[in-house]
Each structure stands twice: as C-alpha cells, then as structure tokens.
Amino acid sequence: MASDNRDAIVFSDQSSEIRLTGSLLFRFTIIFFMFTLFILIVTGFTTYFSQMEIYKKQSERNISEIGDYLRSLIENDWADFKDYRDYYMAHFEEINIPYDFDDYSEAAAEFERLFTVTYPGKTFGIDVDFDEMTPELQEAYFIYRHEYWTLTFERARVSFGLPYTYFLVMKEDIHNVVYMIDGERTEKQVNGKSYIYLGDEYYNDPEVYSILWDTWEKAEPLDGYQEWNNAWGHTYAYYTPLVLNGEKLGIIGTEVAVADVNREILRNTIQLIAGIAFVLVSGMILILAIINTQFIRRTKLLELHVEKYSECKDEEIATEIERDFDGNDELSSLGIRFAEMIHELEDHMRSLSRVTQDLAVSQQLAAEMDEVANKDTLTGIRNRNAYSREAQVVEKERKAGMRDFGIAVVDINELKNINDHFGNNKGDESIRIICRLICQTFAHSAVFRTGGDEFVVIMKGDDYRVAESLISDFERSMKERAHDVTLEPWEKATASLGYAAYDPGVDENYTAVYRKAQDHMAERKLQMKALRKIRL
Hints:
This protein is of the alpha+beta class and 536 residues long. It folds into three domains: 58-260, Beta-Lactamase, CATH 3.30.450; 292-370; 384-527, Reverse transcriptase/Diguanylate cyclase domain (Alpha-Beta Plaits), CATH 3.30.70. The chain is 60% helix and 15% strand. It contains 15 helices and twelve strands. The chain has helices at 2-75, 78-91, 105-118, 135-159, 210-218, 258-289, 293-312, 316-324, 330-373, 384-399, 415-422, 424-441, 461-465, 467-482, 510-527, and strands spanning 164-171, 176-182, 187-190, 193-196, 200-203, 226-230, 233-244, 247-257, 406-412, 446-449, 454-459, 495-501. The chain has a six-stranded antiparallel sheet. Helix 2 packs across helix 4 and helix 3 packs antiparallel against helix 4.
C-alpha cells in the first residue's frame, strides 16, 4: 500500500514537471509573441509616418521636376508661346479643334501651306510676325500650336504615370482659373462632331487653394502639395509658375494620385514589417529549437553555395541549392529564394546584355536620323534646322565672352527666272553651283542652306580674320561667271552677299548681327540689279 503511494507521488511529480515544462514553453512563446507584436506595432507606426514624409517629399520632387521639364519646353519657345496664349484667351470660344487628333503634323503642314500661299518667299518669325498675319493664318497657327502643346502635356502625363497635367491661366481679380492646356481632354459636340472643349474655367477659393494662389502671387514654386478631392479623383497637385521676361503667363500643374502615394507608403511599411517579423520569428524558432546541429549544418551549406556563386557566378549553383534545400522549413524556403534570385539575376544580366546591344543600335539609328534631319537633300550641306541649332550655340558662346565672329547672308539672283525659263532642274543646278562656290570660298566656316535661294555663313577663326578678302574673292568669282561666254545661262547664276561682324557695343545678340547681314545683302542685291541680268 505504501509502495502504491510512492508510485503515485513519482507519477504526480513527473506530471508536474511536464506541465511545468509545457507551461514555461507556452509562457516563453506568449512573452516572445507579445514582444514581437509590440515591436511590429511601434515599428509599423514609426515607419508609416516617416515613410509618409519621405515619400511625399520624393513625390513632390518628382512631379516638380516634371513641371520644370514642361516649363523648360515652354521657355525654349517663349515668344511663340506668348502669342499662342494671348490668342487662346481672346478667341477660344470661336475655334473648334478635332477631339481625337494624335499627331500635330497635319495642322502644322496646313499652317505652312497657308503661310507659303499668303506670304510667298517669306519666313514666319523673321519676315512676318504673328500679329502681322491674316486672321485665317493666325487661327491655323493657333490650332497647330494647341495640338502640339496638348500632346506634349498628355505625353508627359502618360510617360511619368501621372493622373493629370495642365496649364492654367489665372484670373486673379475674380480668383478664377482657365484650363488652357489640359492633359486630359474634355469633349464637346458641335453639329454632331466631336471637338475639344476650350476655355474650361473654374472658381478656386483662395482660402481653400492657398498654395495655388500663393504660387501665383510669389511667382515661384512653393514647398508642399495642394490637395484636390473632386470628380477627377483624389490627388496632390504641385504648381510651377511660368514667368517669361518678367511677365507671369500662368501656372503648370502636375498631379500625383493620393492613392498611389499611400499605396507605396503602405507597401514599404508592410515590407519592412514583414522583414522584421521574419527576423523575430526566425529568432524565436532558433531559440525554441536550441539551434540544433542540423540547422547549423544546412545554414553553413547555404553559405558555401552563396560564396561559391559570388566567386564563379555559375548558374548551376542554383540547381545545387534547389537540390539541397527541398524541404518545407524556413531555411529551405530561404535556399529556394536564393536559387530563384540567382536565376532571376542571371536572366536580368542576359536581358541587360540584350538591352545594351539594342541601345547601341538605337543610338546609332538616332545619330543617323539626326544627320538626315540636319542635312539639305539638294546640296548636301547643313539645312535650316542645323542652322537654328548652330545659331543658339554661337549666342551662348557670345554670352560667355566670344567677340570674334561674323555672318554672311548669300541670296541667289534671279533664281525664279531660271526656273521659269529653263525648268526647276536647271534651277537646282544653279543652287548647287552657288553652294559649291560658297563652300570653296569660305572653306573653314560653317555654311547652311536656310531657304530656297538663301545661304548663311557663320565665320570664326581664320575666315573671320580675312573675311573682307574672302568676300572680295567671292564677288570676283560672281563677275567672272556672269561674263563667261562658255557657260550656259543657268551656269552663270550669281548671288548677292551681305556681311556683318559682331560689334559688342552695338549688337545686343546674334539675331542683331544676322539682321545687319540681311540688310547689307538686300542693299548689295539692289546694286547688282543691272549687272546680274541673265541672257535668256
């Protein structure tokens, strides 16, 4: 009987030990779980709000850069843009622009056609300004420019993944804004046809939209967003004022969706919390499992695989990892992830190699296209597009301190008579002959064909220092050709040359020098009128 009591006591002690052990394990598990939960909650809140500030700043910087990009495009075209803006505000109610255009080239071609018919032989912006054009031409120019700027803002919106881009004209006296360029078109119906709705105007309360009006008033970008929550969505808007030559013309608006910002912040927070949770849970498992030998061995094995891959970069190592870590535990999962990462990295490197090759091909193609775009097909020299770019370069050099340069403007005499009497083919031959003489005479200068019968020579260096001598040589060759009885009439083509050297005390910019050269050419053309008659 006593023995039975002692057995019962032993059994009872074993049960107590089991219950105690189980209780401790349970308690340790609960304590660690609570600690983990506390860390995750604190980290989650801290990370969310810190990420909120960081990502909002990043988003603000990103969309401000897009606003700066659009502003730079407008500033490069500032004179034409101001004409376009003023015309828009005066005439938007009476003009219909097709709703579904996806290219502005047709409108541009129509403007150029009308301009050529109305002002033959003249150049827009040089011979004829916007205000001097006929109402029909002004309307055609406006349609072309509005299609161009609408597509520019739309493409910026799509390329950078924004919900909205636009240009606002501010009516400060009544606190209204006019959506002049809208990155998301609004449709209107006229006689059953679809057109773009122009002049969309809204009242924006300055107390509600203080950032918008403060930006306009101070004429400089401000820190922070303007939050919008309306029928077009919930967005953060950043404003970039457009100020040209000291005049405030409007505000460029770029918006980012609030949901996108919050989604990215939440994703980053979840990723961080997930990473922390993984570390804490792994630590708990390691502690409760007493870091058994099997775990250490497999950890070391994975480490060796990774080191081997870092040394030889052999994708076959991923297959070895997949074979050695085919279990269902966390370490196996980690091994598989490493193997997947190696596969993805190798795929990425192969893809990167292909992209690099494609990029090289694209760069070569771009260079060839650039050459075609800047080359005159008739003469083989650089064209008006190349001249415009070179003129901008010279102007920058002038601002940087360059003083020694001159411009010669050459215009072929009586080219129309040659075309009328002998045909355009002979006229083209005359152009090539004059071009060849110009290039031979001014061999060290940049020569451009800027119009049908006009060439421009930008002289620097050696040619600039002996410009008068070169001009004399050119005019002498013109006289000799005009009196050469062995030549055909179209081979006797002559040209008038006007030259102007940059005078820092008189000429305020490159354009002023060019205009002087044009004026001198026109005077020379009148002087040569009696001498340049071609025998037809």
